[in-house]
Design brief:
Blueprint: H1 2-19, H2 26-46, H3 55-95, E1 103-107, E2 110-114, E3 133-136, E4 139-142
Antiparallel strand pairs: 1-2, 3-4
């Protein structure tokens, strides 16, 4: 059993040592840099012979491609936003019947709810409850309960 344990341990150690990668030095990279610079110089000298575009032409094509890609991206984004807006509007119209739907109308710079059927939902008037509180530091700080206070004991009227 001990022999099997030591054999497995030595195999695991051998795998760990063999899995380590070689360190890449600047001397290794200089060889590739020199090769790349030679290829670039050769391209600049012989691009016309090979029937390839000049580096300036390549730069111009790349810039034109970037512009077209940016325009396509902006157009697709606008189309997606418009499609999402229409879908949200369709869901809203399907979810709320006409008599419960409200539209926000801006009057004197303040939003006002407008009911297109000219009566409030369920003919109960506007359901408006404003949470008591105040604005400070860019936040709303509520004060008091969320429900309207009611008397604890009600005396019957005579």
């Amino acid at each position: 059993m001990k022999i099997l344990f030591f054999v497995c341990l030595s195999l695991a150690g051998a795998m760990v040592v063999s899995a380590q990668s070689k360190a890449v030095t600047n001397a290794d990279l200089d060889k590739y840099r020199a090769e790349r610079e030679r290829a670039t110089a050769d391209y600049r000298e012989n691009y016309a012979k090979r029937g390839m575009p000049s580096p300036e032409e390549l730069d111009r094509r790349n810039e034109q491609g970037r512009k077209e890609l940016a325009e396509l991206s902006a157009r697709l984004r606008a189309e997606r936003q418009e499609r999402e807006r229409r879908e949200a509007e369709t869901r809203f119209v399907e979810y709320y019947p006409r008599e419960q739907r409200t539209e926000i109308v801006w009057i004197n710079g303040y939003p006002t709810y407008y009911y297109p059927n000219q009566y409030y939902p369920n003919d109960r008037g506007p359901r408006v409850y404003q949470q008591p509180g105040y604005f400070a530091g860019g936040q709303f700080w509520p004060t008091g309960p969320r429900t309207q206070p009611k008397p604890l004991f009600v005396q019957p009227r005579n």
